[in-house]
Amino acid sequence: MSDMPAAPHGAMNRRGPFRPGDRVQLTDQKRRISTITLTPGGEFHTHKGVLFHDDLVGLPEGSIVENTNEVRYQALRPLLKDFVLSMPRGATVVYPKDAAQIIQMGDIYPGARVVEAGVGSGALSMSLLRAVGDAGYLHSFERREEFAEIARGNVDTVFGGPHPAWQISIGDFQEKVLETEEPGSVDRVVLDMLSPWECVDAVSTVLAPGGVWVNYVATVTQMSRTVEAIRATGLYTEPESFETMVRGWHVEGLAVRPDHRMVAHTAFLITCRRLADGAVGIPGAKRVKEHTYSAADLETWTRSENPEAWHHEALGERGVSARKLRRAAKDAKSMTQRGSLPQGEAGLDEEEPSGE
Ligand SMILES: C[S@@+](CC[C@H](N)C(=O)[O-])C[C@H]1O[C@@H](n2cnc3c(N)ncnc32)[C@H](O)[C@@H]1O
What we know:
With about 350 residues, the protein is an alpha/beta fold. About 25% of the residues lie in helices and about 20% in strands. The protein has two domains: about 10-80, Vcp-like ATPase, Chain A, domain 2; about 80-315, Vaccinia Virus protein VP39 (Rossmann fold, 3-Layer(aba) Sandwich), CATH 3.40.50.150. The chain has helices at about 80-85, 95-105, 125-130, 145-160, 175-180, 200-205, 220-235, 295-300, 320-335; strands at about 25, 35, 45, 50, 65, 70-75, 115, 135-140, 165-170, 185-190, 205-215, 240, 250, 255-260, 270-275. The N and C termini lie far apart (about 50 Å). Bound molecules: S-adenosylmethionine (SAM). The site of S-adenosylmethionine has 24 residues, from helix 3, strand 8 and helix 5.
């Protein structure tokens, strides 16, 4: 048994009967969800009675428990996707459906050396850390300390403490990454920010030949400008741009149909791969011929000469108040240390995704 490899960081917290300190997701008969952290002697109060935390300790996951008024709850540890949609947030998070695409299309593998920006609330960082594993490397860059603080709290909660493969640097990605990563040393780059085209030179310096670059942007204008900037370098394979839509289905007896509501838009993904220095890229077979549009046409669309045009409001995004950021950071920190957070209390589950 002594030859057994150590369990990956955080894995043991997710297995076995419920223990004090576990986060538990309770679902009632009306499918309302609350998340609690089990504490010895702790109580979960609603207007319909009290559930004693000690009644859960020692039970297997998936047990049904009753409160003092015989209200029944289904008890499970939250999955990462559940946590991401209910955790304290500042910026908009990468949605679980898109995180899954980023891991697959970005080919994030155990042991990979990955850099990421911005960190925001840390949602994508968690998926990237799971994919690179303890022996991997994730260096996340975030220009705003308040966001980094929220992300640290959330990541520590999910992994039960600091993850061995993770570090955050505060500052602009395009400057900091050049100070910290050797040229050609990074396997994968993932950017989720307002203006990824500002990072083209930095990414081109640190990304290894064959390395994958993934961009996550909310609007078509950002997508267009990013693709044109990547293409203009001649250093990458032809960028691929796509989005995913996930439509849930209602399946009950003969009433089998798509759900009435869905999240229709989150963001677009752009992927490409770094060519070897000196290699000449092969343009896509269906590439639009240069003469079908002028530089002036492109400028009208991308507004590259006017950086002021690219701000949050112009891209239809809501700002985040300093008060809300302080509260999210406080919630994220206290959740790591002990507390529980009712689902949706600090998260924005009901709001539409809107990018940065
Ligand atoms: C939409 S949020 C990222 C959300 C995050 N991926 C998540 O899943 O929780 C965008 C973040 O990028 C940061 N940011 C924007 N430009 C940046 C840059 N050039 N360098 C570092 N961070 C940047 C912003 O401060 C913001 O926190």
